[in-house]
Amino acid sequence: MSRVRPASRVAAAALVALAAANRSVVAAAPIVPAGTFADQVVSYDPGANRFQFNLYTNPGAALGAPQTSTGGAFVVTPFNNPFSRNDVVSVGLGGQITLRLARFAHPISGAPEIGVFTFQQFLQSTTGGTDTGPTLFYPSMRAKIDVSQDGGAWVALHDGNVTSFDIPANAYRDPAATLLSDYGLPFTGGLDALRNRASFADTLWAYQGSAGGTWIDISDTGLPEVAFVRFSVPPTDAFSFQLESVSVSTAAAGAPTPEPGCTGLILFAWICPRRPRRAV
Questions:
Q1: Can you spell out the DSSP letters for the chain?
Q2: pTM score, two decimals?
Q3: Would you state the pLDDT for residue 275?
Q4: Contact between residue 215 and residue 187 where contact means Cβ atoms under 8 Å apart
Q5: Mean pLDDT of each 10-residue bin along the chain, 280 residues long
Q6: 29, HSE (Cβ side, Cα atoms, 13 Å)
């Protein structure tokens, strides 16, 4: 069965063209990346307005590793990111999602420690690469971020201002999809490194082995370690926030966080399941 992501007709048409252009980018089966990710939903408030993502309210989708396939034979690329309700959870205006990491994230001077993977992607140029923007599929993907060591005392990042999530995920380092990207390697190049890439292969090269995502720095929080991350969307913001996964860098990953059992209260149910893996 074909999948159509919730988007405008123009965007949907662009995706059809994209799929045709990258038809050779296939993998025999989805691969679960190694790494440290979130393993429990502590709380979830879906918010008041999720725009076209009204059905994306399964917070368990944000647990575990990101998807490496979007269904069938198509792998995750900067131009084709996960979009099913099993892959992404939406946080609407005034809402929030709080996750516990499987391992503590330790501050590292001069390097970001926590990667955030969202429902973000680039629009592909006629040459298969990126344009001068590069143009984002969702230019208003933003949320406030707070972190905590114990789930009780919280520290706001970026002075409580919203963070823009503008770096798409990229599952493989090569166009043939044989070399898995590193989800524990921070991508620090920003949009500047991804502008005006001449081709699809050139775009993948610009990721330098990282799986991308927007990486955040906890070294100035004063916390010795972080076990919890909260994403919240201001009630007056322009768009909802679509989260797929959270990763701890390999260099920053510490001891396993204490296992409290299934204690996450989400507005209307207790949960602690990991995301379902996509069937081939």
A1: -----S--HHHHHHHHHHHHHTTT-B-SS-----SEEEEEEEEEE--S--GGGTT---GGGGSSSPPSEEETTEEPBTTB---STTT-EEE-TT-EEEEEEEEEEPP-TTS--EEEEES--BPPPTTSS--SSPPBSSTT-EEEEEEESSSSSEEESGGG--EE----B--BSSTTS-SB-BTTS---STGGGGTT--SHHHHHHHTTTB-B-EEE--TTS--S-EEEEEEE--TT-SS-EEEEEEEE-TTTEEEEPP---S-EEETTEEE-PPPPPPP-
A2: 0.85
A3: 52
A4: yes
A5: 39 42 47 86 94 91 95 91 92 97 96 97 96 93 97 97 96 96 97 97 98 97 98 93 97 90 40 44
A6: 5
Residue 159 is predicted with a pLDDT of 95
Token look-up 């990101």 returns 66
Q: Which residues contact 171 (CB under 8 A, 6 or more apart)?
A: 31, 33, 66, 67, 68, 69, 75, 76, 77, 177, 180, 181, 211
| pLDDT (0 to 100) of residue 21 | 45
Say what the alpha-carbon torsion angle 39, 35, 214, 58 is, to the nearest 10 degrees: -30
